[in-house]
Amino acid sequence: MIPSRRLLRAVLPALLPLAMGACAHVVVLRPEPDMSSGTLPLTARIQIGDVDSDVNPGTPIRFDVKPAILAYVKERRTFREVVDGPADVNLRIDTKFAFGGDLTGFKYAFQLRGTLSGNQGVIGKYVGEATATNSHTRFTGESDRKSTNEAFNAAINGLFSNMEADRAQILARLSMKQAAPAAASGPSRESRLVMPVSDVDSPRYRKPEIPQAYALVIGIEKYESLPPADFAEHDAAAVRSNLIALGYPERNIIYLTGPKASRTGIAKYVETWLPLNVKEDSRLFVYFSGHGAPDPATGQAYLVPWDGDAGFLQNTGYPVKQLYRNLNALKARSVVLAMDACFSGEGGRSVLAEGTRPLVTKVDAGVERGGKLVVLAAAAGDEVTGTERKEGHGLFTYNLLKGLGEKNGEATVQGLYQYLLPRVQDAARREGRQQTPQLMPAERGGDAAGLR
Prior knowledge:
The protein has helices at 5-11, 65-76, 142-165, 167-177, 189-193, 232-246, 263-277, 313-316, 320-328, 395-406, 413-430, and strands spanning 25-27, 40-53, 61-63, 79-82, 89-102, 105-118, 121-134, 213-219, 253-257, 283-289, 292-294, 301-303, 318-319, 334-340, 373-377, 387-388, 393-394, 438-440. The protein is an alpha/beta fold. A six-stranded mixed beta sheet has the order 9-8-10-14-15-18, sandwiched between helices. The protein has a five-stranded mixed beta sheet with strand order 4-2-5-6-7. A three-stranded antiparallel beta sheet has the order 11-12-13. The chain starts with a helix and ends in a 12-residue tail after the last strand. Mean pLDDT is 81; it is low at 1-23 and 177-193.
């Protein structure tokens, strides 16, 4: 631990500038992120200060810290997105480095301080610090680079772990600071920004990594030209966090929100990326949160991409039956699809072209028997989905993740369905409507079908 410069000097008393020679040394840092323990549904702008070093100015050490931190932050995905311009929050990171040694070896010590702020001021301050030991002082060989990277990696992982552990407080503070009365023209972007903090957002379980587990997670809340699907991106972020906790490698999770979830964006990952990457021993989980729509003439169900048009579904929608066929054709040993959307055209997470009504009484979103695909759908074809507003999630997604947490990540698809079905039905009835989640085909959701 390196809580202060004074203590650093006490712990590392013998700085050795002469041993390092008179030339400057550039140390390239390449930290590898730990798994994120809880994504913040915020965009962030990152500001990085210069490294403050205790090393003698006559023998300077320069660190390639800025690109290293930016690459780390983007890969760890603590934030929904890292941007160069105006953002929901600003994060400034300042770094201190100390080097010294005694007869036991040489110490490489880093301390990183992060200050998170919003429009109304500082939200929180966080620290990560670590020390590594080695027997070299030159900063030119692989051994030296390994030690500095080891200390820096541990320090930055500690900084972000501390920040993520404060997730609920960050969102609560940000929400309170943005709760000022809205102007007459409506609520500001900031006042609409922060989702409620839910108990399913940051899973408490943590399972070993499954190298052959893959996932495609899609959440579309703000459409290009359609009404929003409330909380859909919050749903997707929570599902992603839970999959990581289940052991799905981050490198194997495709995460699409906003314009990335266009018709082309969805198709290229379903029809090209998954067949190229999913193998015979793989398990696959696909999740969609957003609008569905029926074709009024045929009753066929469509997922509505970010750029979808309810009046031109055949050109801009993604047919649910086509999705089923593509997923069933994969080599994976198991495929689970969960959809928090509805296809009735009557509201909720469904849309219909203006001025039209469905001409059929039954929407066809069923899955054929005999394949490997198991589908969990939020509602029957003629029903409307709802939300759990106090949790900031779709009603179906909230109970799906709640069940997964209560079963410590060990639930089968059948077990999750039995958990969420009565809870979703009861909550919908209290709102004066019907919502009946579907498991299709039911015989494939048994004990052998799980998410792990």
